[in-house]
Every structure is written in C-alpha cells, then in structure tokens.
Amino acid sequence: MAGINKNSDQYAKADSHQNNRGNETRAKVVVDMVTKVFESERQTVRALDEVSFTVSDGEFVCLVGPSGCGKTTLFRVIAGLEMPTNGEVRLAGNTVTGPGTDRGMVFQEYGLFPWRTVQENVAFGLEEQGAVEPNRSRRVDEMLELVGLTEFKNAYPKELSGGMKQRVGIARALAVDPEILLADEPFGSVDAQTREMLHDELLSIWTTTGKTVLFVTHDVEEAVTLADRVVVMAPSPGRVNEIVDIDVDRPRQRTDVTFGEYVEQIRSLIGE
Ligand SMILES: Nc1ncnc2c1ncn2[C@@H]1O[C@H](COP(=O)(O)OP(=O)(O)OP(=O)(O)O)[C@@H](O)[C@H]1O
Ligand SMILES: [Mg+2]
Fold first, then answer.
1. For residue 23, what pLDDT band results from cuts at 50, 70 and 90?
2. Mean pLDDT of 31-59
3. Secondary structure (3-state) at 96
4. CB 243 within 8 A of CB 211
5. What angle do CA 62, 216, 210 make, to 5 degrees?
6. Where do the H-state alpha helices sit in the chain?
7. Buried b (16+ CB within 10 A) or exposed e, 178-201
8. Residue nearest to atom 17 of ligand 1 (CA)
9. Ligand 2 center to 115 CA (angstroms)
10. From the CB of 217, is ligand 1 less than 6 Å away?
11. What backbone phi and psi angles, to 5 degrees, belong to 26?
C-alpha cells in the first residue's frame, strides 16, 4: 500500500486544479470541478465552488476545513445523495448519479437502527443485496470480529458506548465490501481516548482491507494521524485551498516534531 500512496502524489497534484483525464487510470475517485449552489427564497449559498482533486486506489484522504466550508456537502455529492450544480464525480471512471454499494458510509450520528441488534444492523446492507444464509451470517461474524464486537452481537445500540456504536457503523459499511469507505466526522462524538483507539482500529482495517478511504473531519490532528493526503478546504465559497501530503511513517506519534509541523501548517492554512 505504501507504494501506491507515494506514487499517487503526482496524480493528485496534477489533478488538483484542473480536469486531467489522462491521469485517471489509477484514480479511484475523481472530483471534477464540482460546484454546488443551494438556492432558497431567502438566499443563495455557494457551498462548493469548482472543487477538484483525485483519490488513488487504496489511498486514505482526509478533508478538513472550518465549519461551513462544504465538507459534508462534498461528502454527500460523492455518496450520490446530492447532485452537483456543475461538474461531476467519477468513481473508477463512472459518473456518480446516485448512491451505490461501491460506497460504504459512516456518519457522525451513528445512524444505527435502534430496533435491530448489533448483528442485525451489520446485516442490513447484505439483506438489501439479497445475500442468503449461511453466507450472510458468516459475513456478519467476520465483520464483527474485524471491529472486535463479537461478544456484543446480540446487544442493541442503546446498550453500547459511542465508540462501540461507531464500530458497528464501520462494520455495517464494510459488510457489503464497498470499494470506497466514506466517513463524515465519524468520531466527532466520542471522547479523546476512545477516538485514538478507533484511529488505530480504522488504520488496521484499512491496511487489512486495502479500501480507499475518504474521511471528513475538522480535527487537524485527526487528519494528520490518519491521512496519506489532506485536502484543506476554505469557506465562502467552499473550495480547495491546498492539498498536503503527509510524509510520516505509521504508526504516527503526535509528539513527533514533523507531526507537529504538519499540524501547524494545516492550521495556518485554515486560519486557526
Ligand atoms: N440542504 C441545504 N440547503 C441549503 N444550504 C445548505 C444545505 N446543506 C448545506 N448548506 C450550506 O452549505 C454550506 C456548507 O455546509 P456543509 O454542511 O457542507 O459544511 P461543513 O463543512 O460540513 O460544516 P461542519 O464542519 O459544520 O459540518 C453552509 O453554508 C450550509 O449552510
Ligand atoms: Mg459537516
């Protein structure tokens, strides 16, 4: 995976401010001049203005930026939950026109079904796909093992901690074996200690599965902990300010001088 990540930088840079289809052969996600305007009677909001960047196969990319810069809007456009006003998103060369099982989603507010047990939550996408027994249960068990929740398979969401709920969310998103994992501030509501544990887990899942990950956060340290590259966004209108390669070996230590320098660099780009 390291090889892919290193080589991906040139593609990303070449593509960050222009539409460059020639470089798309290894690109998993191409965000191509995406503009999103929300219009209401009262006001017009340019949530995204000509946003372009690419994500390579197997790459971990974080989107950071201040509140209101369009992170969730971009996430929703990539997820196919929202159509862009202009421009498009391509996944493995295909224009996104709606949601699909090639993308697994994890949300900040968990989005678990309270009336379903942990294993029934994880099974949801598989049921939608028409997966039959015993394959379905086998896959659910596999996912629960991956996120360390085997013992809680019969528990209900209300019986779980925030961190555990988020792990169920990740297991559910990965159960249908999507090529891309999309996460919008998934660890925003858990405490700092749990968050660090979830970072380790997510990175280990990423290494095991080789998924392409797009992760939204406004926590700069979280982005530098996780990402191969960080897309720094700016608000009003929402746009790409800069794309920063994080050239630090994993596991990363927050106390490292280089780690701190990346955090400072990105914070000053955001204006923090
Ligand atoms: N459905 C909508 N209708 C109208 N305006 C919207 C809609 N969704 C988002 N916006 C506006 O678009 C802009 C970007 O919002 P968005 O939620 O994408 O920001 P964000 O970067 O995710 O912020 P946060 O860090 O607070 O989650 C904001 O000005 C917001 O008010
Ligand atoms: Mg948001």
1. low
2. 96
3. coil
4. no
5. 55
6. 2-15, 71-79, 118-128, 135-146, 162-175, 192-209, 220-226, 257-270
7. bbbbbbbbbbbebeeebbbebbeb
8. 72
9. 27
10. no
11. -105, 5
| Ligand 1 near 68 CB (within 6 A) | yes
Ligand 1: does its nearest atom lie under 6 Å from the Cβ of 47?
yes
Give yes or no for residue 38 CB within 6 A of ligand 1: yes
Instruction: List the domain boundaries for the chain.
Output: 2-102+179-270, 111-177
- What residue's CA is closest to ligand 1, atom 2? 38
pLDDT > 70: percent of the chain: 91
For residue 70 and ligand 1, the question of a CB distance below 6 A is answered with yes
Considering the domain 2-102+179-270 in this protein, what is its CATH number?
3.40.50.300
Taking Cα atoms as reference points, which of 89, 4, 2, 106 lies closest to residue 53?
Answer: 89
Say if residue 12's pLDDT is above 60. Answer: no
- End-to-end Cα spacing for the chain: 32
Backbone dihedral angles phi then psi of residue 44, each to the nearest 5 degrees? -115, 125
CA atoms within 13 A on the CB side of 46: 12
- Give the three-state DSSP class for 14: helix
